Amino acid sequence: xxxxxxxxxxxxxxxxxxxxxxxxxxxxxxxxxxxxxxxxxxxxxxxxxxxxxxxxxxxxxxxxxxxxxxxxxxxxxxxxxxxxxxxxxxxxxxxxxxxxxxxxxxxxxxxxxxxxxxxxxxxxxxxxxxxxxxxxxxxxxxxxxxxxxxxxxxxxxxxxxxxxxxxxxxxxxxxxxxxxxxxxxxxxxxxx
Amino acid sequence: xxxxxxxxxxxxxxxxxxxxxxxxxxxxxxxxxxxxxxxxxxxxxxxxxxxxxxxxxxxxxxxxxxxxxxxxxxxxxxxxxxxxxxxxxxxxxxxxxxxxxxxxxxxxxxxxxxxxxxxxxxxxxxxxxxxxxxxxxxxxxxxxxxxxxxxxxxxxxxxxxxxxxxxxxxxxxxxxxxxxxxxxxxxxxxxxxxxxxxxxxxxxxxxxxxxxxxxxxxxxxxxxxxxxxxxxxxxxxxxxxxxxxxxxxxxxxxxxxxxxxxxxxxxxxxxxxxxxxxxxxxxxxxxxxxxxxxxxxxxxxxxxxxxxxxxxxxxxxxxxxxxxxxxxxxxxxxxxxxxxxxxxxxxxxxxxxxxxxxxxxxxxxxxxxxxxxxxxxxxxxxxxxxxxxxxxxxxxxxx
Lengths: 192, 399
Prior knowledge:
Mean pLDDT of chain A: 92
Shape of chain A: globular
CATH class of chain A: Alpha Beta
Radius of gyration of chain A: 15 Å
Helix content of chain B: 25-40%
Strand content of chain B: 15-25%
Order of helices and strands of chain A: EHEEEHEEHHHH
CATH superfamily of the largest domain in chain B: Thiamin diphosphate (ThDP)-binding fold, Pyr/PP domains
Oligomer: heterodimer
Distance between the termini of chain B: 59 Å
Strand content of chain A: 15-25%
Distance between the termini of chain A: 10 Å
Helix content of chain A: 25-40%
Largest sheet of chain A: 6 strands, mixed
Mean pLDDT of chain B: 95
Structural class of chain A: alpha/beta
CATH class of the largest domain in chain B: Alpha Beta
Low-confidence stretches of chain B: none
Number of helices of chain B: 13
Low-confidence stretches of chain A: 1-6
Number of strands of chain A: 6
CATH superfamily of chain A: Pyruvate-ferredoxin oxidoreductase, PFOR, domain III
Largest sheet of chain B: 8 strands, mixed
Number of domains of chain A: 1
Strand order of the largest sheet of chain A: 2-3-1-4-5-6
Number of domains of chain B: 3
């Protein structure tokens, strides 16, 4: 799978269910982008509930100041629930990237032919291999960065260290590495 | 591993920037009740104020919250709260009290979609008129509207300064989209704005300690009487009843009229010092977009895109909503061929802007959106293009 090249404006949308850490995932990416010297704006749409319901976090990354801070046509969409896929998959940019959980999302092609599709068992890997389903969001971020290289490893590590207490940081670093590696393996398989 | 390029920048939320601004301004009392989408401010202050030896009080509701703030401000605290539409509604009665008793307060209203419970997590600039006329009776008020996270910080500091300088409640009208937006802010590069304190205006000679009798509601030339907090040597009276210069009830026609004029004019007469606007490419523009808050960001993007298509468009951003900068709007817009004003409400402030331009002959077009979403640049661009065509302003200028 070819790596997406950084361009003037890069838009990423993370979507899933409330409680999956979707917004935290968006915060981590925006923070990493700032550390890499870009402008970043992170916003979200969520319902009045704190768990359940659909959740959506978005990040705009640019090399010039950001005025309108919302994502309109995402270059990358992450979906951790079928509802999120149904709602947002049609919005992806032509030639964009769709990352779905392979157990919870069944794509029906609405993303269009030009979109690169990456389906990985992110929630299962977090639950079974890392023994912590809560780390699925950071694992998903690892997948996203592994496929796109949108931010540097140093910037992500700094963002993780800034967002997680010392006690849970090692788990999150492991989750990030796991996701990053899953992306590398996927890319290698596709390039064969 | 590559190195970190930008070491000092922080990803900061608008609400967090307000809390930091309040701390910087010297706020020492927070009285509030949590409400989406403002809760992050209370959370931040609850965590940080105890460490600084300042007071955080969670009250039983918003009515009690503003009561506690008023008491704290009377004895010399810089008091503030953070709320949203429904809580702001509950505060209105005591906002009137604070206006008439001339008690400095800062109310950060992170506006959510209303009326009533509405859409708690979604934006609407719905409290523009509530900030102005939510409480009964003639009075004046100051309301500010930041458009970015960094500006939320400086606007909050300015709100505290204006509250002390003009002895008045000041409202920070923050769009939910700015309150919850996270963007980069390098606070190590803080511009260190001047912090204004109540004592700056207290001339010793004007107090009874200086030999004369301290008049807490004196008819000073500026219209703002110096405020010696209770418990600092002066004994006087506060009341919500219309009062004389000493603070006691009066129904004397002349004294009542003098008081009412001073109360309104102390702010309205200083509109040019209080009201800040930002002009972008307004000189030489055919069309000016007037916007504030989060919508001003969409308007700026629309402006840049229209300019790239050859349209002569400028942006007049209102950083201050009240007192309304009518004169500044007239100066910038009166000779234009078109003024458009997008708002995330049914046109609350367009009424004022349109009134400011009466007699100028400039076509005025209000763009409204009330669907719980931030207005995007395309509808603004479309309105400008359509209206320019309707009023036959050619692309690239020329009449």
